[in-house]
Write a structure and sequence with these properties.
This protein has a 6-stranded mixed beta sheet with strand order 2-3-1-4-5-6, sandwiched between helices. The chain has about 200 residues and is α/β, with parallel strands linked by helices. Helix content is about 45%, strand content about 20%.
C-alpha cells in the first residue's frame, strides 16, 4: 500500500501529535513510514505542515505537489494553501473555524474568511467540513480537534489504517490522564465520519 497524507494547521493546534499518532499506527500494522514537519513560527501561530508517507516505494519524507491522497486541515486558510499537494481523486477534511495567522495582526492586514470558503467550495474535490467549535460544546475545549479529525477520517475510511491501531497509539502517545477523553473524542469523530461517508 502507498499512502500520502498531509496535515496542516497553525502552531498550537496539535498537528505534530496527530501526525505522530498516524505514523505510529501505520508502523504498528507493519508498513514502512516516512514523516516530516515543515514548521514556520509554530509557537506564534505560524503554519505547520506534517507529511506522512506510507509504502515501500517512498524514498522522501516530503510529499510532492499533486501526490497527497488526503489533506487533514486544521484551519481553512491552511487548507486553501495546501490544495496544490492534493491528487485529482484526493480528499480534504477541514476545520470550518478560521484562525487568522499571526502575520495578519502584526501587519495590520485582513483575513478574508468568505473568500477562502468560496475558493474551497469552487474546487471539485471530495471534502468534509467539521467544526472545532462543536468540541467546546461537548468536551469543553478545542484542543482535542487533532484527535477528532483523525476520528472523522477513520470513519470516512480514507486513512488506510484501522481505528483500533489509532486508538492503540493514542494510549501510547497521549499522557495517561488524557487518554480516556481523547479516545472518546476519537470515537465521536468516527461517528461524524460515518455520517459523511454515507451522504
Amino acid at each position: 500500500m502507498n499512502k500520502n497524507i498531509l496535515i496542516c494547521g497553525v502552531g498550537g493546534q496539535g498537528t505534530v501529535l496527530s501526525s505522530r499518532i498516524l505514523a505510529s499506527a501505520f508502523m504498528s500494522e507493519g508498513h514502512t513510514v516516512h514523516s516530516a514537519e515543515t514548521i514556520g513560527m509554530a509557537q506564534r501561530g505560524g503554519s505547520v505542515v506534517s507529511h506522512v508517507r506510507v509504502g515501500d516505494e517512498v524514498f522522501s519524507p516530503l510529499i510532492p505537489e499533486g501526490r497527497a491522497d488526503l489533506i487533514l486541515a486544521f484551519e481553512p486558510g491552511e487548507a486553501a494553501g495546501c490544495l496544490k499537494y492534493l491528487t485529482a481523486n484526493g480528499c480534504v477534511i477541514l476545520n470550518s473555524h478560521p484562525i487568522p495567522p499571526v502575520t495578519v495582526s502584526l501587519k495590520g492586514g485582513s483575513y478574508n474568511e468568505k473568500a477562502i470558503f468560496t475558493f474551497l467550495s469552487s474546487q471539485k474535490i471530495r471534502h468534509a467540513t467539521v467544526s472545532s467549535d462543536e468540541l467546546i460544546k461537548k468536551f469543553g475545549s478545542v484542543k482535542y480537534f487533532n484527535i477528532l479529525i483523525l476520528g472523522v477520517a477513520s470513519g470516512m475510511d480514507v486513512l488506510g489504517v484501522s481505528a483500533q491501531s489509532i486508538e492503540s497509539q493514542i494510549e501510547k502517545l497521549v499522557k495517561e490522564k488524557f487518554v480516556a477523553i481523547n479516545k472518546e473524542v476519537f470515537n465521536a469523530g468516527y461517528e461524524i465520519g460515518l455520517k459523511n461517508a454515507a451522504e
